[in-house]
Amino acid sequence: MSNELLLSSVIFVLVGVVLVSVFLLSRFLGPQNKDDVEKNTVYESGVSHPIGGTKLRFAVKFYLVAILFVLFDVEIIFMFPWAVNVKELGILGLTEMFMFMALLFGGLIYIYKKKALSWD
Asked: φ, ψ for residue 55 (rounded to 5)?
């Protein structure tokens, strides 16, 4: 076994031991107010007494819109470095970016045709 592997194993185990000990110390040494009913009640956006239960099921549309937002947000992450280096990339870089944008625009058209962005 090499020295680097041994050293990294020891560091990994030590970090684990330190983390576990910090969590256990905070659990036993920290304040424990289990009888405070007001502290354990739900508080969301200024509403002290929410209507309905907490086990409500959300529509899939919320998750779909969130995933689509992340997808098109990643598009911007890819487009920014291209915009910075557009002169060095030349016509090939321009063609590749237009192909990338056409692919994403095709995905947007598909999403629009499937009516994934329309709310009922």
From this structure: -100, 30
